Amino acid sequence: MHPTSQLTMETVERNLIDQDGADDLDLTRCQFVDPFGLVAIACKAQFVANRGQTSYAVPVDRSFAIYQERMRLPQVLDAQFGIRASHIHGVREHDRRDVLSELTVFSNWSDAKPMAEMVLNKVNADDESAEAIWLCLCEACENVGEHSGARGFIAAQTYQLDQPGEYVTLAVGDTGLGIRATLQRAFPRILSDQDALSLVIKGGYTGVISDPERGTGIHAMMTAVQRLNGDAVLRTGSQSAKITSSGTIFPSSGRLRGTIIGLRLPCIRGRKSR
Amino acid sequence: MTDTLQATLPERVGGRDEARQFLVELLTGNRSLAGFTVSIHGDALRASGSSFIDELIKKLLVESNADKVIFEEAPPQAANDAEMSAKRRGVVDRLIVHRR
Predict the structure, then answer these.
(1) What pLDDT was estimated at residue B92?
(2) CATH code where residue B21 lies
(3) For labeling, which of A64, A80, A97, B51 is most exposed (least CB within 10 Å)?
(4) Which residues does A265 contact at the CB level (< 8 Å), separation at least 6?
(5) What are the backbone angles phi and psi of residue A213, rounded to the nearest 5°?
(6) Is A126 near chain B, with CB under 8 Å?
(7) Which among A132, A135, A213 has the least Cβ separation from residue B89?
(8) Which pLDDT band holds residue A26 (cuts at 50, 70, 90)?
(9) Which domains does chain A show, CATH number per domain?
(10) Are A198 and A103 in contact (CB under 8 A)?
(11) What pLDDT score does B30 carry?
(12) Main-chain dihedrals φ then ψ at residue B16, nearest 5 degrees
């Protein structure tokens, strides 16, 4: 991992998924992580656990070490994969559950709904933003339960530039089939992850053969993100898509099984999420 | 003249399973809704998932063949989702959306 690495929506590819020696999980040098990074770590943990890794070195940076404990990363990695942190720092007494929604494991929307309620209750969002945040959480978690065939991970955080709860960043991921394999049930000619991502963003494509009129969830999410002037990253297999109000680009990616969706949304419509 | 069935949406809804649970009473015994108008009240609704709304449209207008669905006081996102779902499923002529 890069000596001063960050694990965020923008940097996970470079600093976690594409890193040299990708067979292990080493957070020693990590200094900053957002919910997307946490979910990516959880997804990668599944991979390294399958290869026999049973522990990981916690970050040297104390503030990040405390953050990852506050977000329950060690507990999730231990409970889900039997991967234990090399040591525990212990979090400060005052908690930050007013702004942090801890890394949580879920199986389907019904499981994830209490977490989504908690996220929405924490943000100081106007009606339109609240509607969009809920829709994105709902569709992302529903997709995990309906299509991935694997457990999902969710984490979220509100943060501020000049007002409390002004922005929310959230991530939902899984280590399941991925979008391409799911779509291939109905569209076997879809050969690349980029094609699969393009189609689900466009909308109207689903792998559910019994109900071909589905396939609007991710399109609806991305439409809402663009309407709110937010940002989104979708990554599946070996492809990412970055969606902003100015369009969609498809940067190349390292390979990670499953799908991760990350969103950064202003809680008041029209504010840029940076 | 058709009979009217009523249902009121809660504050936050999402997911296809949740839609099916919401419709359990209306669809008891997998009955056909031919000859019925279904009035869905969205006064309390604050946020919804697209999949919930799509499943609602599919169950009521496609599978149960309701004569008409009237979505009252629909919030903007839910209204858009309902109209898009009905259009995709070829039943838009039997959906009436009254936006909030």
Answers:
(1) 97
(2) 3.30.750
(3) A97
(4) A129, A132, A133, A136, A167, A168, A169, A170, A225, A228, A230, A273
(5) -85, 0
(6) no
(7) A213
(8) confident
(9) 6-85 (no CATH), 100-266 (3.30.565.10)
(10) no
(11) 63
(12) -70, -40
Instruction: Give the structural domain span for B32.
Output: 3-99
Residue A84 CA: distances (Å) to CA of A73, A77, B13: 10, 7, 37
In this predicted model, what pLDDT tens digit does every residue of A47-103 receive, in sequence order? 888 888 888 888 888 888 888 888 889 999 999 999 988 777 766 655 666 778 889
Q: Is the pLDDT of residue A149 over 60?
A: yes
Mutation target among A216, A265, A269 for the B interface, most CBs of B within 10 A: A216
Per DSSP, the three-state class of B54 is helix
Q: Can you tell me the mean pLDDT for A161-187? A: 85
Between strands A231-244 and B3-8, the pairing is unpaired
A 10 A CB-CB count for A103 gives 24
* CA A272 – CA B52 distance, rounded (Å): 29
Q: Residue A123's pLDDT band (boundaries 50, 70, 90)?
A: confident
Measure the CA–CA gap between A1 and A27, rounded to whole angstroms: 8
What are the counts of helices (DSSP H) followed by strands (DSSP E) for chain A?
A: 9, 10
Domain count, chain B: 1
Helix axes B50-57, A127-143, angle to 10 degrees: 80
Using a CB–CB cutoff of 8 Å, tell me whether A216 touches chain B.
yes
Q: Look at residue A274 in the predicted model and tell me its pLDDT.
A: 47
**Which helix (H) or strand (E) covers residue B79, if one does?**
helix B76-88
Q: CA-to-CA distance for B83 and B71, rounded, in angstroms? A: 10
The DSSP symbol for A59 reads P
* Structure confidence at residue A267 (pLDDT): 85
Please identify which residue in the block is written with the tokens 């296809």: B16
- A95 alpha-carbon distance from chain centroid: 23
Choose among B14, B17, B88: nearest Cβ to A134: B14
Alpha-helical regions (H) of A52-171: 62-70, 73-81, 109-122, 127-143
pTM for the model stands at 0.90
DSSP letter (8 states) at residue A71: T
Contacts of B20 in chain A (CB under 8 A): none
